[in-house]
Amino acid sequence: MPHKSKVLQRQLLKLGLNANQAPPDPETWHQFLARVSACYNEADQDRYLLERSLEISSDEMRDRFSKINLLVDQLQLNQSVLQDMLRDVGFEVTMSDLATNIEKRVTGFRCAIFRKIKDGNELEIVAAPGFAQSARVAMTVVATLPEACPCGQAAYYKTPIVYNGDSSHPQHEQLVSMGFESCYAYPVLNASNEVVAVFSLFAEKSLILSQQQSELMKGLGEIVQMAFSHADIKRTLQKEQEGVAARSKMTTLGEMAGGVAHEINNPLFILQGYVDLISTSIEDKNLNAEELLETCQSMSTAIHRIAKIVRTLRNFSRDASEDPLEPTFIEILLADALELCSKRYEGVEIELVQPEGGINEQVLCRPVEIVQVLINLLNNSYDAVKNKSERWIRIEILPSSGRVEIRVTDSGQGIEEKAKGRLFHPFVTTKPAGQGTGLGLSISKKIVEAHSGRLFYNPDHSHTQFVVDLPVYKESA
Amino acid sequence: MKTIVKSFHIKDLQDVGRIEGGAGSGRVRLIFASPGVATNGLFLSALKDLPPDVIVLGCSTAGEIAGAEVRDDSISMADMVFEQTRLKPVSVKINHAAESFKAGQELAAALSGPDLKGVLILSDGLNVNGSQLLEGLNALLDKNIVVTGGLAGDGAAFKSTWVLVDRTPSDGFVTALGFYGKNLIMHHGSQGGWDIFGPERLITRSENNVLFEIDDQPALDLYKKYLGTKASELPASGLLFPIKIWKPGEESNAVVRTILGVNEADHSMTFAGDIPKGYSAQLMRANFDRLIEGAAHAAMNLGAAEPGLSIAVSCVGRKLLLGERTEEEVQAALERMPKGSSQVGFYSYGEISPLVRGGKCHLHNQTMTITFISESGGRDAA
After folding, report:
1. How far apart are the C-alpha atoms of B247 and B32, rounded to whole Å?
2. Chain B residue with minimal CA distance to A56?
3. pLDDT band at residue B381 under the 50/70/90 scheme
4. Domain membership of residue A55 as a residue range
5. In which order are the strands placed within the sheet that holds A392-400?
6. Cα-trace Rg, chain B
7. Is residue A83 part of a domain?
8. Which of A175, A209, A243 is the last residue of a domain?
9. pLDDT tens sequence across B308-361
10. Do the Cβ atoms of B33 and B64 come closer than 8 Å?
11. Among A54, A66, A280, B128, which residue's CB has the most CB atoms within a 10 Å radius?
12. Contacts of A45 in chain B (CB under 8 A)
């Protein structure tokens, strides 16, 4: 019999049957039929299971596909909303702006943002622009405990908490007394899974967030965290900048210390001389009233000189960033600067050429800060020329069309080409290693720019020249 | 090494006690029997009649394999007579599946030796967590030692299995035979032939080898949905849909698990090995040709060059699906072995074998797993 199936061949073999002969007895025939029937049944069952598997798994795949599509739609919608928010709110976001923006997206709710107090178990309110003052006061500090209000609970459990007028909630009475029937609170976690903030939605009616809104709120957590991070970074940066400015000032003071000490020692020496003279006169009983008066006047001059130096020094070292702007004669600014640093030049025979008098221009400024800039330029020139064979520093004041230039030129040969582009960058210095912090010019530039001016290096001069360009102050009529 | 394979109906149990020719350093008699013979006095006395130096290893089955034939209500028996290889049988009692890891360690400690080359394990099929048992074994044995074997069966009943301990059918035991000496050659091969289908799922609630929920839904309900009218034949019909599981991101190390039992009260399903929570899962099904092809591949993967004894341990789920075509897979396997090889084996509730050559042993389900034994420097005869 051709084309016999393998299964059939085996079944015949097992029963000792021959395909070309009839079965020897009915029992064997029945056994054979039973095996063939079993084969048919198994094939039927296999087909049944196959078709059933196909149908059920197709349904499951279709169902999954629908859920995925829905999720994708929700994600796309949320992404669009979040992008809009970022665009509206911008980088320099305030928490109040953020809360207001959130309220626009979830109508019927008011938004409150809390910051987790570091190393504590409490939240402090940061923004609640849409709330009445009394509610803001009541929410000033919230404990992060299981029995706290939803915001505290969200921080404690690190999971979103929903309150919808449930009377069994531990804070139900307080929430009702504040006029709220709904609250959704979302914890904001950092990369180390610590709570950094909680933002929450409160409503006076019992409102349910749609699934899309719920998903959106979870996405907002990242924006709130970003806002907190940016605020922290800005604060740190500001502190750093203040620290840098202070250090630069101290460095400049250090550079001037020798000269300042000399400026104070000179009149002290003179004073000591006069005191000795008076003592001798008293001992010799040779007091001449006229001579004594003259001596006292000279002593007074010396004392005023010391006081002026100390006053200038004190002025220089204090934080003047909060000082009001005041019109100041440029000549006075220059004089104060020279008061503190010009004595250094005598020691190394640097010729200091000052501008001729009669310059009446004033600038509207914080005098201490401009003096710091001038001292910085003069000290830089001192360091540049002190070891040169040709040693001079020239200061010029040149008014022109509503502005005035203070030019500080020294006998140096100019700045090297490769250093020019980075002169005003922080921590860049042309001085030898170990000298200079490289902070002076960058801070000086910031100060001058804050005064609506410019500080620049003049590359066209044959020597080294820096220019401070400021607007002239004109009294309004 | 000499091998002698016999298969006879349980009506001829007295043959269990008979020995035929061939001297050697060690004789092992493998006995794979229909579960019902455990209470048969003739079987028990025949075992005791065997000479005391014959090591007897055996278990109950879900079908007996001898050569290219598969039978129920029979005994398949094979003698291996070794000339140089030393042998050591050990057994460990397990009262509860939770003791499986410790039992594996005890076995390993009892078998360890400087020239241990291979281990053949026959374990209780229902009260052991197979994967934990092997974890315990792997913790102490060198991974170069080949460990193979299987979990005893109980037809399609899933009620009670036994292994031979001191020639007595006993439940709650794991037995093993250690092979020592450089002359032993032990190859292994394992292949499934099942295909995944349907969506990828997540194991959301489980405890060791008990599965409660898949995708937060009762696992038993999922199986019943797919089985339709055959749900009434659970747990046996559950074999038609084994489950492939893997640690997320490590699909290449996936294993297949097969059902051992169901609990209608808590909608749970017990499997032969661990089903860890958080693992990904997919249902599987097979067709006849892929299963038979799988068995052939298992034999081709042996890498054996000389004739020897094939110990074929195949999963009961394959027999359930293949039905009248079951013998095709054992025939396909035997045809691909070195000429002159013999074959014995059984249908099991779990198969034991390394995943890759030189690797640790694992519990498999739904596979045809073959251990091919021969001895170098000796004659092999069927």
Report:
1. 35
2. B226
3. very low
4. 6-67
5. A351-353, A392-400, A403-410, A464-471, A454-457
6. 19
7. no
8. A209
9. 899 999 999 899 888 888 999 999 999 998 888 899 999 999 999 887 777 788
10. yes
11. B128
12. 230
